[in-house]
């Protein structure tokens, strides 16, 4: 596990009507750095996560993850790269609604080599316990509360150890104590495995805990 660096060179994203949604200039994030991204509502934070995850295509500029020219990959290659190196905790969670917390958190086991499955299941269980969503009486995630779903989504992202973790407001909707536990766990896990962490957040405790803070204002990304 090496983590991956991210190099952005003048990446721009525009809406269909030509409005500029994001302009990054040149930004370099070394492998293993933990970075918070903050900015006002509508500033372009989700657009930023989407473009570095390859879910939105830039209009111009270059995105390198490690040695890979990510912006130049075909759609299929981008999807394969994402599956291998990136893990995401996004606001809509993308959980499997009929399954329980443990099956969701350990979902990566189903796509992993046989000899890694037990490790992933154990890590999933551990993460669920840490975040207090490991009771036997919990319903399928379809009927869980917003905060419970959020904790399951983070546990799932941590159950495998990706090179890069991208997260959108992972502590929103959580009480202070649960949020602080999540922050600590997230950072211990990312540092232990030298993962690169890029997290959109307004949480002052999270912002204090990371290596670096970037700001997005009216679509312009820069060190804050
Ligand atoms: N495909 C699109 N076409 C046009 N405008 C878009 C498109 N996608 C996003 N936008 C606009 O781009 C701006 C940035 O949106 P984005 O979701 O990145 O903001 P954000 O900083 O994540 O906001 P929030 O904190 O409210 O989630 C918003 O004004 C949004 O309405």
TrEMBL record:
**One Gene Ontology cellular component:** plasma membrane
The answer on whether this UniProt entry bears the keyword Nucleotide-binding reads yes
Q: Which PROSITE patterns match?
A: ABC_TRANSPORTER_1, ABC_TRANSPORTER_2
- Residues annotated as domain ABC transporter: 6-224
Q: State a single Pfam family of this protein.
A: ABC_tran
What InterPro entries has UniProt attached to this entry?
AAA+_ATPase (IPR003593), ABC_transporter-like_ATP-bd (IPR003439), ABC_transporter-like_CS (IPR017871), ABC_transpr_LolD-like (IPR015854), P-loop_NTPase (IPR027417)
Record keywords: ATP-binding, Nucleotide-binding
The GO terms this record gives for MF are: ATP binding; ATP hydrolysis activity; transmembrane transporter activity
This protein is called what? Putative ABC transport system ATP-binding protein
